[in-house]
Amino acid sequence: MTDLTLLETGPSELSIPLKIAVEGCCHGSLDNIYNSLEKACESRGWEVAKLDFLIICGDFQAIRNERDLNCISVPWRYRTLGDFYRYYSGERQAPVLTLVIGGNHEASNYLSELYYGGWLAPNIYYLGAVNVLRYGPFRIAGLSGIFKGTDYCKPHHERLPYDRNEIRSIYHVRECDISKLLQVRFPVDIGISHDWPRRVEWFGDYKRLFADRPTFFESAKIDNLGSAPAEQVMNHLRPKYWFSGHMHIKYSAVVEHKDNTVEDSFKALAISDELRAQLPGSMFGAAFRKKKSAPKTSPPDITNIVTHFLALDKPGPDREFLELLEVNSSLKAGDTSTNTYMQKTPEGKFTLHYDEEWLSIIRSSGDILAAGDTSLDIALGKSDVPPPNAALQSLRWIQTNITAKGLLKIPENFEKHAPIYDPNDKANANEQPCEFPNSQTGEFCKMLQIRNQFSVDEDVTEIDNDIVFE
Ligand SMILES: [Zn+2]
Questions:
Q1: Winning range, highest mean pLDDT, from 79-83, 117-121, 270-274, 366-370
Q2: Domains parsed from the chain with CATH numbers
Q3: Residue 23 bridge partners (DSSP)
Q4: Residue list, CB under 5 A from ion ligand 1
Q5: Could you list the residue ranges that cross the membrane (predicted)?
Q6: 286-311 tens-digit pLDDT
Q7: How far is the CA of 247 from the centre of ligand 1 (A)?
Q8: What is the pLDDT of residue 296?
Q9: Cα of 103 to ligand 1 centre, how many Å?
Q10: How close is the Cα of 57 to the center of ligand 1, in Å?
Q11: What is the CB neighbour count within 10 angstroms for residue 148?
């Protein structure tokens, strides 16, 4: 992927390079991934310990014990405990900061405990349903799950025990989450989704892809190969890099965004008339914009116009599932806006931080404790995007109550709530666990003073007296 390393920076810009690794689907094979990472680093003259982070693009399968295994939607022959439980119990340690999104084969009960993101195990951070995080000056956006139109506008209604519909619908992307990403107004460096952004295949060597995988062409022909919301988010955020898994094949593409609108750059591609004739006319109309409230133009501060897309396979012999990359973030000389995020560890690495703009979006979209009962509808996805002044008020609140108090650094507050795997404790195939309200979600909601809708037991009336209300 030489095209990913040759990024130009102007004379007034400061280039900050990172060494990262990206992996496609995980499917419970963490040991294989970390072993392969070791070898890949060795052959490139890198050290795993010096990598900034590893990204895993979903189907992670954070299965802590046998009961978690009953919350995963997977064909019987693929049902296996995998390696994660050893990282959860503390028997093994992730050798590098590992950033994870969810896919469509997950221990969905565990992931939903961490709806806003959190540590699945020490050094393994799940981004939650959607997120924008900071690693030094880098902004990383992720969306978990896959797109299915029939569930898109539903709230997150699934609770344990899941019935046979809920065990699948729980990982479907929701509009109430995507609408938060569409409120982001400042540049993002890296985007991650499990299924590919829709139409991204057309920006790479699609002839070879379709020759290799004819079924992909059947889907692409009806404009249904990837995720329409991921496409919308990619076109809105225009990050320099976008990584995906799901299709179990390595594929790269370069998306050139057109002008200053989210008009689909697909229309500008040189696709033969013969091929065009096989595609639906709607592909040459307006871009996917289901909600009237969705932004029609990219925010003025987002000026990047090229997204390098890379999809990778799942682990296995002769599969291309891992890639080492050098990525750059460029800061304008004299820009102090990222100073809060620049603190380093004694080893000289940046650390994970919450993002100020993102927290303000969560708070303005969410269930603020002081705002009355109607805000619950917003948090559960029944309502609309909040008015613009709510975002500004919310940003001020975050700056006063979070940034100024030094709370942006993500705490290392992993705790085990569910039991670790015990080979003597056999669960039968229908036995699902109880809910384990996660203390990380509790602490996050308390910090933002939003209602913790994922914990029925939490005392939501507790308000920190140090918090300043405006
Ligand atoms: Zn997969």
A1: 117-121
A2: 15-355 (3.60.21), 356-407+434-464 (no CATH)
A3: 56, 322
A4: 25, 59
A5: none
A6: 555 555 555 667 788 998 999 999 99
A7: 7
A8: 64
A9: 7
A10: 9
A11: 15
